[in-house]
């Protein structure tokens, strides 16, 4: 069961990743962390110090890291690998596909700083297409957790779970959405807010935008439901259909390209159902990334509360 | 190596070559050249080196074989069938819809196949991962035999994996290079010159053992010597010939994955008959 956080604050995601893995490693010697020379960026270098026997820095060799993880999983190890999201997904795509998913191995991938979270690393280090790529690979589970509580639960949930699991998460702080100790269900979306007029479907960085836009809309009498689709693949079709029924408009909000991400998954279902409900996607529209602060990039690419609000107002 | 042992290994090679050629001829096409150049290696591995239990393919104490040059699946399948992992009749389902013997090895489909390979270079990292797992488990003596093609070494990922093996002195993985001098489109020296693999691997931090890949005794000796190394990464460099043991294809440029015309079938029949006779006479 989950509950909303009562206080507003933020939690550093990489810290959660590292601490949770350390907790798991204390109990389970088969849990290992692999890094491609970004231990200083991910905080995984702390794991190297605390659990040297359960850590490997493979050097700047992402494809090799994926293969090593696959091989270790064949002996029952539970690998968690980290690199920046674009290098995990774009550079090691064939390895993730073949030695991960196709070969039936287990690899848990932390692709950090997806989308606009990239900030100062700029366009070369930006991925707006990671979910599009990963959700097209059969059996791969794609997660876009919104806060530290959800991330902590997610990492624990993968300890005994076979398969390829892709977690796209910021390294730095994300606003707290859920109360400490909340639990979730993989593949099950959370209805954070009910409302009869509009359905906002979001994940990750988009969730807070959707929640704040819903507050703003409420002041004008527009009732917006908000769905946290933190498991982007497999998509929770059932909850989505239940929540979409009877709405005048659906708006998806994602820190990702509008091509083949969260919004596209929702659009597929609406179209195949012949629902006739209008859908608008808030996300990155056929553009590359660029350098800038996260705030700058969010404004630049329309990932703002104001933009979500305007999209609802102009399409309702 | 004593004569009797050598006779057994040569007979083993003949059997693998024979079953592979019969299967490919029945299929009408296939990856002949690279499958043939590892036949002697497979005979030595399955007859004299590997620990395995065909009735328990996933036996946790087994040695692993990672055939990174996955297109050579047919001769691996022949070796597995001959060593009890599945019935020889299954060989005549190669590449059929729904078969458990796909063109490239698949660990989820075929008993005895340890790694899924085919996208070249990737088996090197998987072997490194299995080797590292064995080390972390403290399993001394258990090995991973990684078979890579010389053309496959065009792939950068191989060298990423080799750096890792060398850095960790991961002797649990024995890298075996099938140096048959040809890749799909022609000679290595016409496509990407390999220069000196022995020096290359040595400079990467490997102990390198050279062997004549056409001679079982030479392969056996090199693998056993490599298996004794505990202070460095190890490599066995096999000097082989593409389409080895199949005279008609040795000089041909289309030996990688030929489709057999009437002439080719006639020539394959000659080789098959000679092998059948050799096997029937017990390798004498």
Automatic annotation (TrEMBL), chain A:
InterPro entries on file: PDH/Transketolase, THDP-binding, Transketo_C/PFOR_II, Transketolase-like_Pyr-bd, Transketolase_C
Superkingdom in the source lineage: Bacteria
Family annotation (Pfam families): Transket_pyr, Transketolase_C
Annotated CDD domains: TPP_PYR_DXS_TK_like
Classification via SMART domains: Transket_pyr
Keywords: Thiamine pyrophosphate
Cofactor(s) the protein requires to work: thiamine diphosphate
Domain Transketolase-like pyrimidine-binding: 11-176
Family according to the record: Belongs to the transketolase family.
Name listed for the protein in its UniProt record: Alpha-ketoacid dehydrogenase subunit beta
Organism: Anaerosacchariphilus hominis
Automatic annotation (TrEMBL), chain B:
UniProt KW keywords: Thiamine pyrophosphate
Cofactors (names): thiamine diphosphate
Origin superkingdom: Bacteria
SUPFAM superfamilies, A to Z: Thiamin diphosphate-binding fold (THDP-binding) (SSF52518)
Domain called Transketolase N-terminal: residue spans: 16-262
Family under the similarity heading: Belongs to the transketolase family.
The name this protein goes by in its record: Transketolase
Organism in which the protein naturally occurs: Anaerosacchariphilus hominis
